[in-house]
Amino acid sequence: MTSIPRIGIDAMGGDFGPSAIADGAVLAFREMPGRFEVTLVGDEPEIRRALKRAHADGLPIQVVHATERIEMAEKAAAAARKKSQSSLGVLTQLHKEGKLDAIFSAGNTGAVVATALLGLGRLESVSRPALAAFMPNPGGGTVVLDVGANAECKASYLVQFAHMGSVYARYLLGRDNPRVGLLSIGEEDTKGNDLVFESLPLLRRANHLNFIGNVEGRDVFRDTCDVVVTDGFTGNVVLKTAESVAGLLFQRIRSEVAGDPMAMLGTVLMKPALRRVMRQIDWEEHAAAPLLGVNGVCFIGHGRSSSRAIRSAIRTVTTFVEKRVNEHIREEIEADRDTAA
Amino acid sequence: MTSIPRIGIDAMGGDFGPSAIADGAVLAFREMPGRFEVTLVGDEPEIRRALKRAHADGLPIQVVHATERIEMAEKAAAAARKKSQSSLGVLTQLHKEGKLDAIFSAGNTGAVVATALLGLGRLESVSRPALAAFMPNPGGGTVVLDVGANAECKASYLVQFAHMGSVYARYLLGRDNPRVGLLSIGEEDTKGNDLVFESLPLLRRANHLNFIGNVEGRDVFRDTCDVVVTDGFTGNVVLKTAESVAGLLFQRIRSEVAGDPMAMLGTVLMKPALRRVMRQIDWEEHAAAPLLGVNGVCFIGHGRSSSRAIRSAIRTVTTFVEKRVNEHIREEIEADRDTAA
To answer: What is the ipTM of this complex?
Structure first.
């Protein structure tokens, strides 16, 4: 790298608005000073106030004003087409013009995907960009893709997802030879739906892949593979199911403990142990999901991203740019195509 | 009912074999004496020993010998075709001949589905039987179908799943006007895959359905609907994801607590509260999943079914027969067809 990554952030995206984002940027600068610059895009007066409250004076943060914003409930495709002056639209345009090296938004996921696809286009030789989510587990975590960019997929897309996920696991998670699984409803080759049956031989034949065969929903949360490929419909359902089961369990425990003084004392004693568990399965430390395969660097955050989540997102985005992940994705997909042809 | 339900159980199915099944049957007789009879099918000497250990003398339990058994890892379709003398094959045949009113197996799920489809056939006017799983949640639970009988589905199947699931929720869970949701990746009509887009208008048009529109993975674990319909691939993935997330959380907490004496004391204090939570999300109390739409009554249990799970399965199967659920399914599907035609 000749220069440090210039990261653009949608200051209006996310449930907590500019203040969580300003706080997160300040946390990130404290953690990794000199490794990146930030441009915040959105309502300038609001952003300036948030930066002031976050004590951001003197940090390399630029502000670019945008007149519109895309709401969480807006229809993705329409918002992407019509709101070119939204914080997200302006951000994407700046990236396209080369004024930013990466963009991040914790806003409406569908709108970010649609805006990025429309504004940035695809990496050469990538058929369909895919949204890759990190699922924490005791083995260090699994990358699942696609989790929502393509509700309908062809088998050939899944092979590209496998390559993109492998590159991501190698450079961002430090896995040497990432194990790739195909999400199915049984490990046997005879189980699955039509997409699984078509994808299996293609994945087996693909070069440069450490493909381990079919895996099940439970393997996402075990140390059996580093990358799980699936269509964006199934992947999205897995993501939301996992989040809600974990949330439901903790909510039920909290509510039962609340009326029970002995149990409340119990949780105090358990706090260090529970905190260790939470660290292992900490969504906030992996809150930014890359849209792999776009001609640019686009990360999407959870709507409920806190300042800690924003900090970890900036860390991930910086590493992604530093390690030139997109170049490796292009090389890997082209290498497979060359040998397959 | 002129007579009490005669329930046949695959004594060789499940990880704990005849002893868990004999114990479970005895528990069920203690809970509901005179409401059902049991026939155990499998290795007779082994079953007799298990019954003796379970103090089952004097209870209305018959034993039918079967020479073969289907292993958990066997290929479903092949086992269903070839092993007609397996405990499962004999059980299904007895049901077909009218000597049993219902059958239950905690064995190889795929083999039970295949054997039941092959041996019993479909209810008149049902296109595809579906496996329905109960997912416990604070609202009392949701029925999800299909969770594995049909990896590929047409939109018209999903409409029938909605009817079958509604009938099940009405008669087995006591829901007056069951709310039915279509599993998708967003509540908006514009989100989903091709199957969702095709199913949505059909479900809206269907008669006798309280259809509430698209729902997400998280709705399975909230009190937003009583029935969630989806294809058997997605449903199976949801089921396994949910199980494994819950399992992972408890496993991590247990392992962190183990090395921490204060935390161990904490769990002792929390035990009553945790037990209340476990009761609310108790899989064992809903361990039997019906294969709805077969021309007979076939329930499938989790391989790890304990004697408690077997007891609750017998309770559910008995209720299913007593309430003549199959007749209601036939009526409901025919009524929709008549008005739709």
So the answer is: 0.88
